[in-house]
Amino acid sequence: MKIGYARVSTFDQSEDAQVNALTAYGCERVYREKASGKSAKRAELSRLIDTLRPGDIVVVQRLDRLGRSLSDLIELLDGFKNQEVDFVSLHESIDTTTATGELVFHMIGAIAQFERRLISERTKVGLQAARARGRKGGRKAKLTSSDIKKAQAMLLDPAMTKAEVAKHFDVSRPTLNKALSAYVQQ
């Protein structure tokens, strides 16, 4: 079964042109959505994915209607492949039911993998440079060493519970426990 997906970013826009192209291509069902491509939570796309069966073909008018980033597209297309679902993008002439379309899909996948590796390498180099300058990465600690000393003193009182101490410092009990154990190890 050919299943179409049409998406526009705002409620001011109309997806009618996409729906017409998908219907003309032979889509028996078209999921319509008004949501940003950046949004990971797209209800109609989730419904489409939930209804897919092996042998189905997902059709979009343009690749950017399915997702904004190359990595998101690759993730979706890999999911389709794992479900034995083919994919067609009308504008870009990508059709994984053909050998050429499959080749284009693999080339896009290779480029995405290359992009991920480059990002990873740049991140590692940036972290090393920051460490060399004495910077430490990660989230700022919720409790200062002074707070931890106060928490330890409060916990010496047998009537005081860890939950009460955590509430006093506006942190969760696991955060308090982690801070206390890290402070002891120093």
Automatic annotation (TrEMBL):
The active site is at residue 9. Residues 1-134 form the Resolvase/invertase-type recombinase catalytic domain. InterPro entries: Recombinase_CS, Resolv_N, Resolvase-like_N_sf, SSR_resolvase. SUPFAM superfamilies: Resolvase-like. GO terms for molecular function: DNA binding; DNA strand exchange activity. The keyword Disulfide bond does not apply. Keywords: DNA integration, DNA invertase, DNA recombination, DNA-binding. GO terms for biological process: DNA integration. The keyword Nucleus does not apply. It comes from the Bacteria. Belongs to the site-specific recombinase resolvase family. This is DNA invertase. It comes from Pseudoalteromonas ruthenica. The lineage of its organism: Bacteria, Pseudomonadati, Pseudomonadota, Gammaproteobacteria, Alteromonadales.
